[in-house]
Amino acid sequence: MGSRLAKEYVQTAKTLRNDPAFSHVLALAPVSDDVLNKWEATIEGPPQTAYYGYQFKLQIEVDQNYPIKPPWICFEPQTVPHCNVDYDSGRICLNLLDADHWSPAWDLLHSINAIWQLLANPEPDSPLDIDLACLFRTKDYCAHDSLVRYYLNGGSRGSTGPIRGTR
Amino acid sequence: MSTRRDLRNHIHELYQENGASNALLQMLSQLIPESMQEELLQDEKQGCPEHYVDSLPRVNKNKIEDHETCSICCCRYKEDEYPLVVELPHCGHCFDLECVAVWLSKRTTCPLCRDDVLSHKPKVDVSQVEMEDDWGMYG
């Protein structure tokens, strides 16, 4: 199954070049061409969310049982305030990524895409960040987004617009 | 107090012998409520029966298109001169026998549509059976 990663590498590069449906995935490739079991991804915050204008990096590790076992995917520590992400570690709670819900027909690109969709569609019923989940569940989106921006701006209540993005 | 120490030593021994052994899991499961024990132990045997994959219908090489790939290994079936491709019942999704065998040893769902492959009763193929008009009415 080692060749699967090589095939994914080629296929992903092709898709990212040609398919506008994945334009929010700014990068997804192995860390080095020699070691295909460690990948890195960069995604853009989804439009019409507090994350828009920011970029987020993801670390991906794949063990030898991939794709029978799901990949391990994690945001960089302390970069993503989101009710399904543990802010300090970057750990993501997404059922697709645990062994019970994973399918070997999924690939890294679609996993990353699912995480991008999770950014826009928080699941407050299985939260890792209770505060954000509570705000979201009570439909106080204004407070939710403000708190997200507060974190994104480095914990200081600065301008509410994007400051770190490179758009 | 002493029983706890015994238990701890026993667990330690088991772990030293074979960390992945089921005996350790069984013992640890005794520490949690009975209703949850079953669930924990069931994790070990979630796949299809061993012979199940061998019973799946093979796909004839002539029926495989050149561009068709196995969605588990992402390889074209025809890359192999003698491709062993199987079709799952009901949903009809196809995979390399080798690839799907590994998956079905752990799970019972189709990788593409999550259809539970064991949930369907075996279909009896009656299309080839000649119906007898007399239904044994004579003699």
TrEMBL record, chain A:
Belongs to the ubiquitin-conjugating enzyme family. It comes from the Eukaryota. The active site is at C93 (glycyl thioester intermediate). One of its GO terms (molecular function) is ATP binding. Pfam families: UQ_con. It comes from Lachancea meyersii CBS 8951. This is LAME_0F09978g1_1. Keywords: ATP-binding, Nucleotide-binding, Transferase, Ubl conjugation pathway. Residues 1-157 form the UBC core domain. Pathway: Protein modification. The keyword Nucleotide-binding applies. The keyword Transmembrane helix does not apply.
TrEMBL record, chain B:
It comes from the Eukaryota. One of its GO terms (molecular function) is zinc ion binding. Its main location: membrane. Residues 70-114 form the RING-type domain. GO terms for cellular component: membrane. The keyword Transmembrane applies. SMART domains: RING. It is found in: Membrane. Pfam families: zf-RING_2. Keywords: Membrane, Metal-binding, Transmembrane, Transmembrane helix, Zinc, Zinc-finger. The keyword Transcription does not apply. This is LAME_0E02828g1_1. Gene3D superfamilies: Zinc/RING finger domain, C3HC4 (zinc finger).
